[in-house]
Every structure is written in structure tokens, then in C-alpha cells.
Amino acid sequence: MQPARTSENQTVAEAARDIEAGPVVVEVRDVCKTFRIPEHRVDSLKERMVHPFRSNPHRELEALSGISFDVHEGEFFGIVGLNGSGKSTLLKILSSIYQADSGRIRTAGRIAPFIELGVGFNPEMTAHENVVLNAVMLGLSRQEARARVQSVIEFAGLEEFAELKLKNYSSGMMVRLAFSVMVEVEADIMLIDEVLAVGDAAFQQKCGDVFHEKREAGKTIILVTHDMGSIEKYCHRAMMIHDGQVSLIGTPKEVSEWYMRANFRKEDERPGFHAGSSEEGDDAFVAEAWIEDEASTRIENVEQGTAFRIGLVIEAIREIQTPIISFVVTDEAGVHIFGFEESLSGAPDYPGGLKPGQAVQVLADVQNLLRPGRYYLHCRVHRNQEMTDIGMQVMRTLDFVVFGTAMTLGAVSLVESIEVSRPEGTA
Amino acid sequence: MPADETRTELKEVVGPSALGGGWARFFDLLILIAVNDFKKTYFGTVLGYLWSLLRPLALFAVLLFVFTQIFRIGSEVEFYPVLLLFNIVMISLFQEATSASVASVVNQESVVRKTHFPRLVIPLATVVTTLFNFGTNMVAVVVFMIFYGVAITWTWLLFPFVVLALFVITLAVAMLLSSLYVRYRDVGIIWSVAVTALFYATPVLYPLEIVPSQYVDFVLINPLTPIFEQARHWVIDPSAPGALAAAGGWLGLLPAALIYVSICVLAVWVFGREAPRIAEEL
Fold it and tell me: How far apart are CA A161 and CA A32, in angstroms?
């Protein structure tokens, strides 16, 4: 095992060296970005008229302070960082969604950002029309987009439904369609947010296949992620951002080790809930997250086999009309163990969805079939029923340990009882 | 490989802006969005085209009754019913496009925050969609005019210039409103009042010549006034004074022209300044 790994590492290293000798296609120099977060937002002209010269009270949030790096042609470049480290801001600046305050970014070729699947999908339009629009948004010309519609729809396996309005699509079909657009849109440089890679196992597999294919085809890809597995699996090089600064650029292995260390150091300081760890621009944040036992006493660790409850309080920053709150619990390796989702539409306490400043508490009773180990809770708020529009995503908002000594094979023990006996008719 | 060399030439990323991403992309997006919106209104409802015509027609019927049967100012003006319908369709372009544009950028929030999208496309598409509507409504107006006995003259060919002037001011106002609304939500309420006031301050219900002389100057500073007067002169009644004659010479037109130009310059400046930050403000 050991020699094989080294030789594989060598080839990876060689490939990385070859790529590094190639031309630079993305050049980022000293990029800074500061957000002004209003503490008391003057939203009305009246207030503006009454206090014309008073500047809005605000605090400054330095999201990026002097980021520099190069990406070479054909490179698969990973960007990692903890929640709130500035990696999403960087992605948005690279995608020309935000403007950098200072610094310079130069690129060669067309950049297609994939921050979310199916941005701008219009439920009143057919799949065909939506694909054209989406592809043009991602940078194709109308002619190119039209020429590709057929293959997009074929890749999604939705030939029969091409002329169906999107509002009649299931959420699964919609995700498939949006994903196919991404696969078929040929861009020189692809910027991919990890948001894409979250989904059921089959979808993750499909994403993985596409990443692999694009990598082999020599595409330049920048992937922003939390998942060290994909960093080590796909990337030639990776960069870790911490507090808006580059803390390390190196091989995937170096970066993922560094990341794990940083992550766990942080966790050692503050076990359990990691507050305020949402990204700038989110529509909501996790105000509190905890686990409790059946007597509603908050606990940090759960004994194997003991049922527990996951509690969360989410507070809206902006209005979210039809929120769906979803969670997923992963183990240390990032494998999704279980998850759940809850729509607030129709909840009597929230007519018309979540208003800014309004909070919602979610309690989930969990049957504990987990094997001993450390688990992470990731939480998202979706803005639409199809769950394609993500208003908030907080990774590792809570971590807890299941302790115990009973032997378990596999991630969960689903076997209720075992009976051992002699088969009938045998000696 | 030469192809590779051109591809690896580094170009500066300028960030989000009003036009960002090049002209070809700008027009592709504009056409797609405007056409899709237009299709949605026309094929999304059962009566489609009829609905878009019904609104100005209903307004026309009510106003025609009021101003010919109750106030009777209509009877002093030649071709009053035609003029009224024509003016209503013209002012509807301005009213509908500007009102729809107010929240347009905010409504497209997810697109603005998640893709590299030329910001100007959003209000512009709203105005262009309304312009399509205006075009189809005009067909009905022309039919009505011919029935009513309005003479077809060569000056009809000049009508596109009037539409262009109206289009530009409508777009300028749309740009101002949509970018300001991102920060100040009461722009929406203010505009709904302002647009009604403008309806009466523009010679829609009345031609300029029957306005009492002490108020003429007031009506004349409205940049929409010359547009409506000129349209009437060219399309409906060549004997009616054009913009220039109605204003009493170039000097009379000057305030309206100045306001027109200032609104356009202000719109370009404000939108250009706000565009890069819209994604953060939302």
C-alpha cells in the first residue's frame, strides 16, 4: 500500500509540475474586500431627509485582505477555508458578482461561475427556453446555447419533457437539468462552489464523475469546498484561506492536513456549537445549535444507542418567503449519515415565511443508531420549494461525539436483533 | 500553438457593472429576457393580447365619457377620441414601464447575486417588453384612427423619432428608480403617486392649447409635453401646433429639454455608480 501511494503521489506531483510550467490563466494580486454592514439600516428616504448628513452607523467587515495566487492552464485548483474565512467572497469577486476594493485580477479566456444550480430558472418557461437562458447567463452566445440545448436535455435524460414548463418539473428533474447545463457549457475556466456537490449520494457521484472528466480533459477548474476528500481526490494544488488571507498554498495533502489542524484547533477551543459562522451575504444565520437528551437537558456528547434531540434556532436576516430548513449529519470522513428537512410553508407561526429578524426553532428527535465517533451537523436554508435557491449554508455548525464501546460494522447499526440457530433438517 | 497564445493572454477582470460582459452578451440576454417576458404575458393567460389592450381601452372608454359627456372639453378639440386613445397608449408605455422597473432589480435578486449579469439588462428588458406591448397596442390605435377618418400623411414616418424620445426618457427614469429602490424602498410608494400626477401634468386628456395661459409654462417644463405635442402634430392632426409652435419657440422648449437631458445624465451616473454594488446591497 505504502509504495503504491508514493508512486501515485509522484505522478500527481509530476502532473502538477507540468501544469505549473504552463501558462497562467488566472492571476490574482492583492485583492482586498471590505463589507460595510449597516447596524441600523436606513431604508427609508424619510430617515435620509431627517438626517441628511449622518452617515449610517456600520461596522466594517474585512472579508479579504490581500489575496494573491495564480492558477495555471489545465489546473484543478482547490480553495478551502473555515466558514466565514472569505472564500465565498473571493469566488464572487472572481465571478464578477462583487467588485474588489483594490487589487487586480486578470484571466485568460471565459470564466463560467457555478455558484448555484439553475440560477434564473423561470418556472413559467419550458425546459428548452430555460436551458438557453441559463447557458447565456453562464457566458455562451445565443447561437451556441441553442446549438447545445439538445445535448443538455439528452444528458439530463429529459427528452420527453423538453417542452414542459419548469413549474411542472419535480425538484429532482430540475436539478438534473441545471446540472447538465453546467456540464455542457464549455468554459475555459470553471469556478465551482461546493454547494453543487451537496445532494444525495447518486448526485454526488455524478458530480465527482464530471469533475474527473473535466480534469482529464484539461479544463481549468477552481473548486471552493469544505470537503478535504474532494481536494485530495481532484486537485493539483490547493489554497487555504483564513481570516481573509492566504494561509497556505500547496499540495492537496499539505493543505488538507493544515485545514484539519486549523479546524480542530478551533474546535478544541469551542466544543459544540460554532456561532456566527455564516458567510457574508447569507439570508439567515444559525443563532444557536445544540443537542439535548430526552429530558431536554443539553448535552455535548451522546451515549451510543441513547435517543437524543437536535435543536437549532435560525434567525432570518432578509425576508425568506418559502423557507425550507434542511440538515445533514456527516461523520468525520464527510459521509452523509442522515438528514432531514422541514418546510415552513403552511406553518401557522410563519404566514408568508420568515421576516427579517424573525427566528425559528427546530427540534428533531433522533433515534440513535450511530456508531461511536465524531459527527458534524451542517445546516442550510433554502428559499424555494425546489431547494435550488440557497439562502444560507453553514457547514459544521455543531459537532458532537457519540461515545460507547459496542462493536458496530458500518456507519449505523440498523440490525435490531440477531438470532443464531441450526437450519432445519441439518445435523 | 497560436490559438493557445491568444487564449492565454491575460485580461483584466473589471467586476460587475451596468454593461459587464461585452455587448454581444448584453444583447443576447436582453433579447432573451424581453422576449420571454413578452411571451409570458401573451401566452401565459387565456386572453393574452386582449388583456394588454383591455387596460388602455377601458381607461379610454371611461375618460372619453367623462370628457365628452360631462366636461365637454373634448368636443372643442378635433379628433378628440382618437387623440385621447393615442395619448393613453403613449403614456401607458411610460407608466407601465417605469412602474414595473421599480422593483425589477430587487426581484431579480438571485440572478444578480449569483451570476455575472450586466445590471442594465434588468430595467432595460422591462422597458423593452413594455415597448413590444406598446407596438401591438399601436396597431389597434392605427386601425381606430383610420376608421375615424384621420388622414394618413408622410409625417407618420417620423413617428419612430417620437417613440425613441419617449423610450429614452422612460429608460432613464427606469434606471433611476430600479437602482434607488435597492437602497430606499419607499421609492416605490413615491413613484406610484408621482406617476399619477404626471398623467395629469402631461397633455394626455387635453391638448396644450386649451390649458389656461397662466399654467402653460408649468405644463411646458414637463419633458413629456413636447413629445406628446409633436406626436399629435405628426400623426393625428397636422394643423395642430407641433412641440416648437406650442412652446412658442426654442426658448419655450429649453426648460423641458434641459430637464430631459439632466434626467438622462443623472440616470446614467446613478446607475453606473450603483451597478457594481447592487449584489452587496440586496
Answer: 46
For residues A396-401, average pLDDT: 82
- Between chains, do B279 and A92 touch, taking CB under 8 Å as contact? yes
Mention every residue, 6+ apart, whose C-beta is less than 8 A from residue A316: A283, A284, A323, A354, A355, A356, A357, A358, A359, A360
- Kindly determine whether residue A109 and residue B7, on different chains, have CB atoms separated by under 8 Å: yes
d(CA A326, CA A342): 6
| Domains parsed from chain A with CATH numbers | 11-38+59-264 (3.40.50.300), 284-403 (2.70.50.60)
Interatomic CA distance for residues B67 and B206, integer angstroms: 9
Task: Say whether residue A133 is in contact with chain B using an 8 A CB cutoff.
Answer: yes
**Would the ipTM clear 0.85, i.e. be above it?**
no
In a domain, residue B6? The reply is no
Q: What is the pTM of this model?
A: 0.74
Q: Model confidence over A171-193: pLDDT tens digits?
A: 778 888 888 888 888 788 888 88
CB–CB of A280/A35 below 8 Å? yes
The total of structural domains in chain B comes to 1
Note whether residue B7 is domain-resident: no
Q: How far is A46 from chain B (nearest CA, A)?
A: 9
Q: Given an 8 Å threshold on Cβ–Cβ distance, is B8 in contact with A24?
A: yes
Residue B68 domain boundaries: 22-275
The CA angle A314-A79-A230, to the nearest 5 degrees, is 85
pLDDT tens digit sequence for A328-355 = 888 877 778 888 888 888 778 888 888 8
Q: Is A81 on the interface with B (CB under 8 A)?
A: no
> What are A148-155's contacts with CB under 8 Å, separation 24+?
A148/A184, A148/A185, A151/A184, A152/A177, A152/A180, A152/A181, A152/A183, A152/A184, A153/A127, A153/A128, A153/A177, A153/A180, A155/A180, A155/A183, A155/A184
Task: Quote the minimal CA–CA distance from B257 to chain A in Å.
Answer: 28
Any domain includes B5:
no
